[in-house]
Amino acid sequence: MDFFSDYTMTIDGRAATAPAGFPAYNPATEDVIAEAPDATRAQLDAAVDAAARAFPAWSARPIAERQALVARIGDLIEAHAEAFMRLLTLEQGKARKGAEWEIGGSVVWCREIARQSLPVHVVEDTAERRVETRRVPLGVIGGITPWNFPVLLAIWKIAPALVAGNTMVLKPSPYTPLCTLKLGELLRDVLPPGVLNIVSGGNDLGAWLTTHPSVRKISFTGSTATGRKIMASASGNLKRITLELGGNDPAIVLPDVDVKQTAEKLFWAAFQNSAQFCVAAKRLYIHEDIYDELATALVDYARTVKVGDGARQGIDLGPIQNRMQFEKLRDLLADAKANGQRFLIGGEIGDGPGFFVPVTIVDNPPEDSRVVVEEAFGPVLPLLKFNDLDDVVARANATEYGLAASVWGRDIETARQVAERIEAGTVWINEIHSFSPHVAFGGHKQSGIGIENALEGLAEYTNAQTLVVNGAA
Ligand code: NAD
């Protein structure tokens, strides 16, 4: 199979081209690297119909068989890991290490989710009756993914949806369709036709999926703004929804940390994947006693990090994935500059080609400035001073978001007390970004609805069904 040409959709187990296509770009060069099919409305309907036809047989298969096929998806990704990593870097921009993390993670997720199943809860088992609640699949799932981790976040949906007995129509971001289309091609002969359909297209295609009457659930990862639209359009037939949305995660650094050691961890907490990471540390609150020392250590470390074309050896951070996000960051930097904010490093965007934004650290901007309030989704990090725990907790929580957070300090009891007061779905202490297929992940407030991963995540691909069996006929 050639990963670098001939991108087709997968509908009912077969390749599908579309009357029109749209370009995919290499964000490091701005060159067009391929054309992806732009699905028509009729093709989306055909994909949903195929998934609906495949559902009865797929859901009736023993779960062990479904688990084995999901584990096999992991084996196949592993067998083609090199091609996936190269294509991921080409279309997404991320550097080699990041591509290894994403593709390696996708393999692990398939294998581990394939070990999960939902127990039957027996509530009563008496001579008179047996009452049990079991979990049954929903039907056709619509999956919609963003452009920052296109493969891993697709697997986070495909693996539990299929293990639970559902079928799926998945739509990748129009900015990063290529790896997902190749994943569909790879699985064409592995999964029964219609179990996993991959369609590519623009935002309209997403809207058709979310309003389709035969789709029973939407599992969406993307921005809060789109999440709101999806919640509204899913109401037509009361679709279930799981929404993994944006974040503006605070990291709180207490005065007793080892500054040198923590600086490197905090750098990556903020800038991993060029900060195109829903759970990147996006506001760094530093106790005033160590502010200057830590700011200097962060800048010193930042000088050692290489930004460039992710396909080149020795590059740590790639470009921003697309022009839309790149222009948003340009605007954010212009705003910071116009308001007299001080850059400790970075702040100047070069002439290109490529959507490169330098690592930028902003020195203690006002709490209501755009660099603090908005989710930058790019390498622009505000450092903020605090001297009082109640104050920093209030500032950390003063956002519509509640995705994740981190607290850094040697006195674990104090760090824990702070962590427990943060309104966020995940709070890490002295580490960050440790994810597991067996650990629940989801946002509070406007960072989302529902959970991915763990048995709670698997359960979101099911309905509860209670059986009350009275032995007397
Ligand atoms: P986005 O919301 O612009 O797009 C995400 C997906 O939604 C794309 O596939 C897009 O085509 C589709 N879409 C757009 N409009 C639609 C509509 N009206 N109906 C249905 N689908 C539609 O998000 P993005 O820019 O691709 O991703 C960045 C955002 O995703 C950031 O806010 C980031 O924090 C968030 N994110 C969250 C998580 C998480 O797990 N919570 C993970 C990664 C990214």
From TrEMBL:
SUPFAM superfamilies reported in the protein's UniProt record: ALDH-like
Keyword Translocase: no
A Pfam family of this chain: Aldedh
Active site (UniProt): E244
One Gene Ontology MF term: oxidoreductase activity, acting on the aldehyde or oxo group of donors, NAD or NADP as acceptor
Annotated keywords: Oxidoreductase
Domain Aldehyde dehydrogenase: 22-466
InterPro entries, alphabetized: Ald_DH/histidinol_DH, Ald_DH_C, Ald_DH_CS_GLU, Ald_DH_N, Aldehyde_DH_dom, LUC3-like
Keyword Oxidoreductase appears in the UniProt entry: yes
Gene3D superfamilies given in the database record: Aldehyde Dehydrogenase, Chain A, domain 1, Aldehyde Dehydrogenase, Chain A, domain 2
Membership in a protein family: Belongs to the aldehyde dehydrogenase family.
PANTHER family: ALDEHYDE DEHYDROGENASE-RELATED
Protein name as it appears in the record: Aldehyde dehydrogenase
Organism: Zavarzinia compransoris
